Amino acid sequence: MPDELAFRPARPRRAFDEIVTQVRGMLRDGSLRPGDRLPSERLLAEQFGVSRNTVREAIRMMEISGLVRLKLGAAGGAFIAEPDPGIAARGLADALQLTTLSLSDITEARLWVESIVVRVACERMTEEQLRALHDNVDEVSKLSAEGNWERKAIVHVEFHNLLADATGNPVMAVLMRSMADLLRELALAVGPSTDDIIVRSRRRLLRHLRNRDADKAVLEMQRHLKRLHRMWLTGAYQGSRTSRSG
Amino acid sequence: MPDELAFRPARPRRAFDEIVTQVRGMLRDGSLRPGDRLPSERLLAEQFGVSRNTVREAIRMMEISGLVRLKLGAAGGAFIAEPDPGIAARGLADALQLTTLSLSDITEARLWVESIVVRVACERMTEEQLRALHDNVDEVSKLSAEGNWERKAIVHVEFHNLLADATGNPVMAVLMRSMADLLRELALAVGPSTDDIIVRSRRRLLRHLRNRDADKAVLEMQRHLKRLHRMWLTGAYQGSRTSRSG
DNA sequence: TCGCTATATTGGTCCAACCATAGAGAGGGG
DNA sequence: CCCCTCTCTATGGTTGGACCAATATAGCGA
Predict the structure, then answer these.
(1) Nucleotide whose C1' lies closest to the alpha carbon of residue A78
(2) Residue A83 DSSP one-character state
(3) Ramachandran quadrant class, A66 (left: phi over 0; alpha: psi -120 to 50; beta: rest)
(4) Per-residue pLDDT reduced to its tens digit, A97-108
(5) Could you say which of A5, A25, A172 has the minimum Cβ distance to residue B151?
(6) Is B66 left (phi over 0), alpha (psi -120 to 50) or beta?
(7) pLDDT at A242 > cutoff 60
(8) Coil, strand, or helix at residue B167?
(9) What is the distance between the alpha carbons of residues A43 and A40, in angstroms, rounded to a whole number?
């Protein structure tokens, strides 16, 4: 007997689930847009015909999902959030605690997805986007020399995002950002030591991109990624998970 | 579950944030494992020294993060969840939903990602996974004949998830699920009319997969996706977002 | 005009009930 | 002895009231 989802339950979900679904719907059809402010909790409770506590649980759901951001005070409230793939990545990180997600899995997925990204970007990217990538590499190089590790890590990851943006496809940009954020979570366990290699590889990649040589660009990316992967595996980060034995 | 006061009182930030952090910590160090049951809301409220409402918001947070699953009734409660890639995918899907996307963007991204998925699945998929895909197509065919549109749409989209699972890469599975969620929303807006074409194309695809002919399989998928895209564009679905009139 | 204060509005927390659900165990009939 | 049913009860779900904490804004006073 298959789980018959054929019929929706008449008294289906919890009340706050329904509220979240309605807000999601408004988001989808455009009646709510990023930056918009939801009515206050008290007003929502009245409009939905539920108690304020129920509304709060719904809002909590949306906050965790990254759909809204909450502001305190008189002009506060629940505001539709700007798209933030980082939230999604955090969800992945949570899943990481439960599932067995190895560094190999992520590297492999990146290898696949980024191959596409590089190839498409090679065809489509504008001069301006190419310059932005150059600037990014320069900044990483500079920050690395200064020893500004924290800022450097951010700019570092941003390279992948810029590359994904260069495909001109927003879906791809979001997917890439999520993976990049996830990667950064894992890379924390590795520590900083590979800057030189990364920067040099990226400069080679940029040269191929400028020449619109997709094959060479993809090859450079793949070689670099595999090399990086090997270095990580032989480095401090060993297991497929963070160790939980004392 | 130890009957000592295993939890420290919570206060500093928002109270429920602290609660979630503590539970996360217990999960990390192994004092809580998948399948374990958290104390009841009332007991947790007592142990944490907060109200039951606050505990509920914390539990809601953990539920959204996919950390726990809730069960109703006498032996119910909050149970540490088994790993579920679908949970992580929902967060990504939310991020995608906040971005302004056109159908072209999604189709293009699918074309790219699914090309990879098909190719890899062709190499790695087991007989069992192939059979699951066959069963899926059969069920879609049956539901379509019965006119069970709603359930059909779900099973329909599940095809892509099964395919992604066949790559054996959980990251890929999550990425695909995110896009599939998006796709299901769109498919509902478009309405049912393309079933025959889809089913027939999928049967051809499965034949290629069974023969381990990656090139033909990828080609079949790409041809089908482009065709579908054209049909949608000339159909009821016009704008770059779903519009709900009335 | 500038700066401070009062106030209104908002989210954050708490309480004490009640409802709906579903497992568990008691009871009856075979 | 076993199986079915029925009730009992612990659980999450919901309610509506109250108060606290933060904060933007209007209004007052120097």
Answers:
(1) C11
(2) P
(3) left
(4) 666 667 788 889
(5) A5
(6) left
(7) no
(8) coil
(9) 5
